[in-house]
Amino acid sequence: MKLQSATDKDERKLSVAEKMMDQLQKELKQKDQIMQQEQASLAESKREIELLQEKITAMNLQQIEKDKQVQEKEETLMLEIENLTRSKDNLIFEDDIYGDIIIDNPLILKIIKTHQFQRLKNIKKLGYIFQNIQKSTYSRLQHSIGMYYLAGKYVKQLQRKQPDQDITESDVLCVQIAALCYNLGHGPFSHIFGLFLKEVFPNGNKPWEKVSEASVMMFDHMIEENNEVKNLLEEFLDNYEEDIAFIKELIHGTLAYKEKKGKRKGKEFLHEIVVNKTSGLDVCMIDYTIHDAAVLGMNISFEWRAFLSKVVVMKCENDERHLFFPQDDFETYNNLFRTRYTLHRELYYLRKNRIVAVIIKRILIKLNRKPIIRDGDRLVTISEATKSMSAFTQLDDSVLASYDDDPEVQALLNCLGSKKSIGQIGFIIQTSDWHKERIRKHIIQNTKSCNIADQLVIDPIKNGYENHESLTQYYYTSDGRTGQWTHEWVSFIM
């Protein structure tokens, strides 16, 4: 019994062990299944990741291809733009005041490239002053470009701010052309040539009284000599005949509208941009005052952009439309006039500069004895050249290089070259009784020591505001009222 009992116990133990083994195997099998499932899931996830990576790679490749295509299109477009820019005819003028002035209008470009206009680059704006101040060598061409730029900004700003004034594109172009061509009539060394004309045409039979008249004559000559200019004028202007007449009015500075003859009825203000006969404050005065002040190193408070932004067109009691300036800036305008006055005193009529002017005028008078200017198939004198625009086109500052064996001319040229000067014997205030010729005769008669008739020079000095009493300007106030400056305008000269 004991033996059987032990055997039973062993069998029971074996049975328990087998059960435990079976349970362990089941558990291992379940874990193995779970592991297989996890591995399958991991493999599936890995495959999904690989597929996703493949998609991302494909998308990246597509994007790269698109970017490449876009870049190629951009490069092609930029190349086309660059080619267009290169093929497009334009000019860029570098200006110390305005920066880069870009000109791309075909008509303006064609005018600038004419011989009549290009002649201005050989005429110094400050004429004789370069002999004493080397940086004063900027030309009439540069002044003309500056006037063109400023006039364009002026009229376009009015056009943009006040569409009710009906400023057309043809109006804008007429103002710009008038400003561009305003200086066409200047002779060698600018205003010295005017002094020369007074000497050689003493009886009032000068070919013109004002430079603006010569500018209009040269403008007509330019159109006659350049068919492309005429064709472009006909293309760009609304009414060729009327607009050409209007451009000439603007160059002259005539107030044709006063006689009801103006070419722009109801647009009187357009006559006040290029040459303002009423107030004296126009683009011509602004441009040369700012540039000439820079020659002297003067700092001026006048900001041309701020000025243009505040000018408005308003109707007056007589139904005429004029330019109105803000009352608050009155002192700024007077300061600009003071600067111009200072330029007359310290630059234009400075003693050493006027002496150079007298020398150059004397040389021109001496050179005028011989025909040296080509006019078609003949040679004419300098004074005769003013009667023919084809001959006058040949006249610029280089005329001083014309050969002349006159001892006085050689001596005067040596004075200019060596910075030597001629003497000054005194000052006198000119009156209505004591005019230039009477003063001259009096000095000659009372100089007993020698005969100075051929050497005596009387040089009247001006301040630039001889007729300041007639200048006036309309203004508006911050509360909407309007008025007109009369005796207050340019009041510093009183």
What number is the mean pLDDT? 84
Structural class: alpha+beta
Architecture of the largest domain, CATH level 2? Orthogonal Bundle
Give the termini distance in whole angstroms: 156 Å
Residue share in β-strands = 5-15%
Structure, explained:
- Keywords: Coiled coil.
- One of its GO terms (biological process) is dGTP catabolic process.
- This is HD domain-containing protein.
- With 494 residues, the protein is of the alpha+beta class.
- The protein folds into two domains: 12-88; 91-422 and 457-493, Orthogonal Bundle (Hypothetical protein af1432).
- The chain contains 17 helices and eight strands.
- The strands form three sheets. A four-stranded mixed sheet has the order 3-4-7-8. The chain has a two-stranded antiparallel sheet with strand order 1-2. Strands 5-6 form a two-stranded antiparallel sheet.
- The protein is elongated.
- The termini are far apart.
- Mean pLDDT is 84; it is low at 83-87.
Topology readout:
Blueprint (H helix, E strand, L loop, with lengths): L1 H86 L3 E5 L3 E5 L2 H7 L2 H4 L21 H22 L7 H13 L9 H10 L10 H15 L1 H10 L3 H13 L30 H13 L8 H7 L1 E4 L5 E6 L3 H19 L2 H17 L5 E3 L2 E3 L1 H4 L3 H4 L14 H12 L17 H10 L27 E4 L5 E4 L9
Parallel strand pairs: 4-7
Antiparallel strand pairs: 1-2, 3-4, 5-6, 7-8
